[in-house]
């Protein structure tokens, strides 16, 4: 039985380390190849040994697809391709291909230079890995091989984020990656057509959240920032260089302009300017409004936001600083946080989700005493605020996407088990499709019923139509023909045509049965009685009495003859071909019962 | 899934292709004669840069090779329209008393004085409300779109790539802007009267469909038309009503330019229009996907098959340098997008080495800024080199640097800032390349009288001699460097060899050498079988023989419907009569007698006798009074009415045969 198998190596009932194996119609595809921010040991990367014990990954996997540039979706890629060893194609969109290596390099620097890790991937490995990347356009159908095709859809979330459809024949899987169903200040909303996949694999970060309107959250955010700087406090906003950062910058920039504020806004390190440049060059991936106005005013050229210098952190007076990374797990944002945490006038605003184990997660869950390296304890007096600006779909959005795509079944990843469970029930109830939520390493097997497309010869089709009924979509029809499979093409032709094409002669099989009847009447009379009997019995069949005295039922021939030895017995010769087997057999049985005494 | 027509009619609704230097009477009406003169509304007086005078073109028909294809239920319109030059007539002609106000004389030639008008694709032949889909090949090929979407009852979908739409919008915006700057109340219409037109000399008298020529559309119509376009990406498969699938492919000619594949499950038509195999800024042409076409429709070849674009660019640069070094100005009449990007890139590499770094370059167009900005954001549609620049991240085109270093300046028009910044000698890129409207008119008048200056024609769409005719006598130098990167005939034959379509369909003009060079047998399409050609408004049946339709089969046969036996005590006999429409498999193979007899013995038959006959054998089962005639292609079992026996024998025979 054909089936689709899905095994999450990461992101199964968890956020981080997204990596999902999909087997569909004999093709193996790996979706995302992320790292886990919450771990610094082996667990930070997916367990690739699961894929194949001793074979080469390249032989086993047909392709790897990366949905977007966040490290929890692509952070393990150089390790996977260069250290474990994979030489097959890696697909991602153009912006992802542009930005991904920069974030990987950034990640490598923190891991190796700052934390001194050995046996990590090198810069050269990142470069070599990126050489294996094939960039895809939105909606382009990429033929991975003769049978496997993939197609990218816009996902919102971050610049270049895409959902992918993986299709083999009539079976398909849509993987959402991370997506956002409401347009924000710089990106558009995710969209997928009614592609009716066999399976939809959706993220579920905000499985139980229905977020209030974006406007409220924005107003809230601005109010909090404004109040803090008014009373002379410093605001730290940990962000990832690309994504939320740009949206919040646009927000603050317009607010500063409107309110005519002079408090400085900084953006940490050089990556930012570069990041903004990417947004300018890939402006076609942003939302309608920005795309429309970019010639007059490019939203990514900020007047109020300046580059941050490490020394600024000790400057007196209020300021707003965007610093990377977003979960306070390393780097500049963590440094600034340590400096400012002790002052209750200050504020840290976490604009996105934080995975378990990160400082961000700890302070958000209410911890106020943090153990830092070297057994130092950091007391957090500054205000901690959480603002959901992560561009993930909320429960409503996820339901909306399921409605858009109309899948046969749904599988949830990239979320917490408890919340998933809730959403799973909701999806099963509302859409009446089965919904799965496997843990890491757990395999979900979905039986599928693939259709088999074949070419039917027009001759055969017309013959079928001549028998009445026009073909109707979605209604099964039984018809007889010969299936010719040649060079992976399937053709259904009439038996005659098949014989002809194959150069074979028809072999005719004929039966003639002698039916003995006790009757003294003459043969002709006998035949006439047979005729009348059959005529009245077989209504709806063509029964004929031929001039030569024989009787035909359809193409079956019946002749009456005298018995060579017994004059009181007559012999009916019933003759038919193999094609009329059923009717012939039926007639002999019928005639054997004898003829009615009085002809009707 | 209804088996459809086996032929696919195709109607060219515009000129398939244009060739210059036409001499044939029939064709000459489609193409402007090189030597023609045209009328311009010449105003005397000095030229003032702040109050430019604008010349009015007589008539500008829109060139529109435009094909309609009809699949069983879908109509697809390949439509494109480009501006092309108007028609001229000679002055030494009987009087035109009735329309003398429309006629003006210039340097001994007479022209029509009118608001510019445009020739549309054929709209009479088909009812455009029955067209389901319009496929746009490139931004030059959509100039007539507002006429169709706004005024014909067309309600279908238009498909185009994003760069095509964005740059197409810029071209239309520029055109509308140019025309609106010089309002003129009246279109000349009297000359179009058949009785008058008939008396006019060729080619004017042969101008087609003059009565359908229309004035320019408005920006409102442009916006409305463009809002009807559905954006598509290369290699995107677009399902149309489940009947056909269309796919745009990179054609290598311009940003976002596409060839189209139109295919059903068993037929494939490629529409190749405006393609280039040269390495310029756009993504290279996708040839592989064109393979296995049943029919390849080929149009939009180069206008100047004898000119090598690379050589022309070289000539362009050297002429430009020469003029500027001598203190003259250079005027480059051009479209606001396309070749200008390549020219700017060449100049970027050239100006320093040629010592031109201090010479200002001006790009004047209402859409100059937009065009330069848009060119930088379509990285995904650019050639590999340019694409990889974006990854750095750097702008893909070096004109960003030219602007940054103030070497290239752009202005919406000659009014305003430009008049303050204007320095000479300089190089000016501006439109319209027909020299009939736009800021170029002003520079022609400003610089035409000095032999120091040079006008360099790069756009291949217009005959430069014709374009210049109304400005004669001219002192300025005229250089003709047409840069047309579209396929030439050598490239076409290379392409066809590579792609190997079963049939090629092309405009008639491509099937014979150009009239002016009738000995050049190499300047025509040469392929086997010879191409099928078409003319405007001709219906062509494409050679398709549809033999298959697609259906889906189930992996297993459905269960037979259960006989409703229960319930009724007595069945009528006829209920049991087998349906004569049940499956009737054919048999094939032959029966080797010896093996057959062995098999019979194995299954317990004894007393078997075999007799030879003329055509085969007779196997006798004496005990059962049964006779089996075996011949090469038939078997006949004759037995008593012993169904058990018959079925046993049948199954044994079937063992030797194959069922179909």
Automatic annotation (TrEMBL), chain A:
InterPro entries: Beta_Casp, INTS11-like_MBL-fold, IntS11_C, MBL, Metallo-B-lactamas, RibonucZ/Hydroxyglut_hydro, RMMBL. GO terms for biological process: RNA polymerase II transcription initiation surveillance; snRNA 3'-end processing; transcription elongation by RNA polymerase II. It is found in: Cytoplasm; Nucleus. The keyword Hydrolase applies. It comes from the Eukaryota. Its cofactor is Zn(2+). Keywords: Cytoplasm, Hydrolase, Metal-binding, Nucleus, Zinc. The keyword Membrane does not apply. GO terms for molecular function: hydrolase activity; metal ion binding; RNA endonuclease activity. Belongs to the metallo-beta-lactamase superfamily. RNA-metabolizing metallo-beta-lactamase-like family. INTS11 subfamily. This is Integrator complex subunit 11. The lineage of its organism: Eukaryota, Metazoa, Chordata, Craniata, Vertebrata.
Automatic annotation (TrEMBL), chain B:
Residues 1-35, 552-576 are annotated as: Disordered. Its main location: cytoplasm. Keywords: Cytoplasm, Nucleus. The keyword Cytoplasm applies. SMART domains: Beta-Casp. Component of the Integrator complex, composed of core subunits INTS1, INTS2, INTS3, INTS4, INTS5, INTS6, INTS7, INTS8, INTS9/RC74, INTS10, INTS11/CPSF3L, INTS12, INTS13, INTS14 and INTS15. The core complex associates with protein phosphatase 2A subunits PPP2CA and PPP2R1A, to form the Integrator-PP2A (INTAC) complex. INTS9 is part of the RNA endonuclease subcomplex, composed of INTS4, INTS9, INTS11 and inositol hexakisphosphate (InsP6). Interacts with WDR73; interaction is required for the assembly of the RNA endonuclease subcomplex in the cytoplasm. Component of the integrator complex, a multiprotein complex that terminates RNA polymerase II (Pol II) transcription in the promoter-proximal region of genes. Belongs to the metallo-beta-lactamase superfamily. RNA-metabolizing metallo-beta-lactamase-like family. INTS9 subfamily. This is Integrator complex subunit 9.
């Amino acid at each position: 039985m054909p089936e689709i198998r899905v095994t999450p190596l990461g992101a199964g009932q968890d956020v981080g380390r997204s990596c999902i194996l999909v087997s569909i119609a004999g093709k193996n595809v790996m979706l995302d190849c992320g790292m886990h921010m919450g771990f610094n040991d082996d667990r930070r990367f997916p367990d690739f040994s699961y894929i194949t014990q001793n074979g080469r990954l390249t032989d086993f996997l047909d392709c790897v697809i990366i949905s977007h540039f966040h490290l929890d979706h692509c952070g393990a890629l150089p390790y996977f391709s260069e250290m474990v060893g994979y030489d097959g194609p890696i697909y991602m969109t153009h912006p992802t291909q542009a930005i991904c290596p920069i974030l990987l390099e950034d990640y490598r620097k923190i891991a190796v230079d700052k934390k001194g890790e050995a046996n990590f991937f090198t810069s050269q490995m990142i470069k070599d890995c990126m050489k294996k990347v094939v960039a895809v356009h939105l909606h382009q159908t990429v033929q991975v091989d003769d049978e496997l095709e993939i197609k990218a859809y816009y996902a919102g979330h971050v610049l270049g984020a895409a959902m992918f459809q993986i299709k083999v024949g009539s079976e398909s899987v849509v993987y959402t990656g991370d997506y956002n169903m409401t347009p924000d200040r710089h990106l558009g909303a995710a969209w997928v057509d009614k592609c009716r996949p066999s399976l939809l694999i959706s993220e579920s970060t905000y499985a139980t959240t229905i977020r209030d309107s974006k406007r409220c959250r924005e107003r809230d955010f601005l109010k909090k920032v404004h109040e803090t700087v008014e009373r002379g406090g410093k605001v730290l906003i940990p962000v990832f260089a690309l994504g939320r950062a740009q949206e919040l910058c646009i927000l603050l920039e317009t607010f500063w302009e409107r309110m005519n504020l002079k408090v400085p806004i900084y953006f940490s390190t050089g990556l930012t300017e570069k990041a903004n440049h990417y947004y300018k060059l890939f402006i076609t991936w942003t939302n309608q409004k920005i795309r429309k106005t970019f010639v007059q005013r490019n939203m990514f050229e900020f007047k109020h936001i300046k580059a941050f210098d490490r020394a600024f952190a000790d400057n007196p007076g209020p300021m707003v600083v965007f610093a990377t990374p977003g979960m306070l797990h390393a780097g500049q944002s963590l440094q600034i946080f340590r400096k400012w945490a002790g002052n209750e006038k200050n504020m840290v605003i976490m604009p996105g989700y934080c995975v378990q184990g990160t400082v961000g997660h700890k302070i958000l869950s209410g911890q106020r005493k943090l153990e830092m390296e070297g057994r130092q304890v950091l007391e957090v007096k500054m205000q901690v605020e959480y603002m959901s600006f992560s561009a993930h779909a909320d429960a409503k959005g996820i339901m909306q996407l399921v409605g858009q795509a109309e899948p046969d079944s749904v599988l949830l990843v990239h979320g917490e088990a408890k919340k998933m469970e809730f959403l799973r029930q909701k999806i099963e109830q509302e859409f009446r499709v089965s919904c799965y939520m496997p843990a890491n390493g757990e395999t979900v097997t979905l039986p599928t019923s693939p259709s088999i497309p074949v070419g039917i010869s027009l001759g055969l089709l017309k013959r079928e139509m001549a028998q009445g009924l026009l073909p109707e979509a979605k209604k099964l029809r039984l018809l007889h023909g010969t299936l010719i499979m040649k060079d992976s093409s399937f053709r259904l032709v009439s038996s005659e045509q098949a014989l002809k094409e194959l150069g074979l002669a028809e072999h005719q099989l004929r039966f003639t049965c002698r039916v003995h009847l006790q009757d003294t009447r003459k043969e002709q009379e006998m035949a006439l009685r047979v005729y009348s009997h059959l005529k009245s019995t077989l209504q709806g069949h063509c029964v004929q009495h031929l001039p030569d005295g024989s009787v035909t039922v359809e193409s079956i021939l019946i002749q009456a003859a005298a018995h060579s030895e017994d004059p009181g017995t007559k012999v009916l010769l019933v003759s038919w071909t193999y094609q009329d087997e059923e009717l012939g057999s039926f007639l002999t049985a019928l005639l054997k019962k004898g003829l009615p005494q009085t002809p009707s | 899934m209804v088996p459809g027509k086996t032929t696919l009619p195709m109607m060219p609704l515009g000129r398939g292709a244009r060739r210059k230097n036409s001499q044939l009477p029939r064709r000459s009406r489609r193409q402007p004669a090189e030597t023609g003169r045209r009328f311009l509304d010449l105003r005397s007086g000095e030229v003032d840069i702040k109050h430019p005078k604008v010349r009015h073109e007589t008539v500008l028909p829109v060139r529109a090779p435009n094909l309609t294809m009809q699949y069983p239920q879908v109509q697809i319109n390949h439509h494109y329209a480009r501006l092309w030059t108007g028609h001229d007539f000679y002055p030494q002609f009987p009087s035109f008393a009735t329309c003398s106000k429309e006629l003006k004389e210039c340097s001994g030639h007479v022209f029509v004085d009118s608001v510019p008008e445009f020739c549309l694709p054929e709209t009479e032949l088909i009812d455009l409300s029955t067209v389901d889909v319009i496929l746009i090949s490139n931004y030059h090929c959509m100039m007539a779109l507002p006429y169709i979407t706004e005024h014909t009852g067309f309600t279908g979908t238009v498909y185009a790539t994003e760069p095509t739409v964005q740059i197409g919008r810029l071209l239309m915006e520029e055109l509308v802007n140019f025309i609106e700057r010089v309002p003129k109340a009246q279109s000349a219409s009297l000359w179009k009267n058949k009785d008058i037109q008939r008396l006019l000399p060729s080619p004017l008298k042969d101008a087609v469909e003059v009565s359908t020529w229309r004035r320019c559309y408005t920006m409102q119509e442009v916006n409305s038309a463009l809002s009807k376009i559905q954006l598509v990406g290369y290699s995107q498969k677009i399902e149309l009503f489940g009947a056909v699938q269309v796919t745009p492919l990179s054609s290598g000619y311009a940003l976002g330019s596409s060839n189209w594949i139109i295919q059903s499950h068993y037929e494939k038509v490629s529409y190749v229009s405006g393609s280039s195999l040269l390495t310029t800024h756009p993504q290279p042409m996708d040839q592989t996907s064109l393979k296995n076409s049943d029919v390849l429709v080929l149009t939009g070849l180069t206008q100047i098959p004898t000119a090598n674009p690379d050589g022309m660019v070289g000539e362009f640069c050297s002429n430009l340098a020469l003029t500027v070094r001598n203190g003259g100005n250079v005027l480059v009449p051009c479209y606001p997008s396309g070749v200008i990007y390549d020219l700017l890139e060449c100049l970027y590499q050239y100006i320093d080495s040629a010592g031109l770094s201090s010479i200002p370059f001006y790009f004047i167009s209402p859409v100059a800024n937009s065009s330069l900005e848009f060119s930088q954001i379509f990285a995904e549609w650019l050639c590999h080199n340019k694409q990889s620049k974006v990854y750095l991240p750097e702008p893909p085109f070096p004109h960003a640097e030219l602007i940054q270093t103030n070497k290239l300046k752009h202005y919406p028009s000659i009014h305003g800032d430009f008049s303050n910044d204007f320095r000479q000698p300089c190089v000016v890129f501006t439109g319209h390349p027909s020299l009939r409207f736009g800021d170029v008119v002003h520079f022609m008048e400003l610089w035409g009288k000095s032999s120091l200056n040079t006008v360099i024609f790069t756009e291949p769409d217009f005959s430069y001699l014709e374009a210049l005719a109304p400005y004669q006598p001219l002192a300025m130098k005229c250089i003709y460097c047409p840069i047309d990167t579209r396929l030439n005939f050598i490239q076409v034959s290379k392409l066809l060899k590579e792609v190997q379509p079963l049939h090629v369909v092309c405009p008639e003009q491509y099937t014979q050498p150009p009239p002016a060079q009738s000995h050049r047998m190499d300047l025509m399409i040469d392929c086997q079988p010879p191409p099928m050609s078409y003319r405007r408004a001709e219906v062509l049946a494409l050679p398709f023989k549809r033999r298959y339709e697609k259906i889906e089969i189930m992996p297993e046969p459905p269960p037979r419907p259960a006989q409703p036996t229960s319930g009724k005590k007595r069945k009528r006999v006829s209920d049991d009569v087998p349906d004569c429409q049940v499956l009737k498999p054919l048999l094939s193979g032959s029966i080797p007698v010896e093996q057959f007899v062995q098999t019979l013995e194995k299954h317990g038959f004894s007393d078997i006798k075999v007799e030879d006959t003329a055509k085969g054998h007779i196997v006798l089962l004496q005990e059962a009074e049964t006779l089996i005639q075996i011949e090469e292609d038939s078997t006949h079992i004759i037995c008593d009415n012993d169904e058990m026996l018959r079925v046993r024998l049948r199954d044994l025979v079937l063992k030797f045969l194959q069922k179909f």
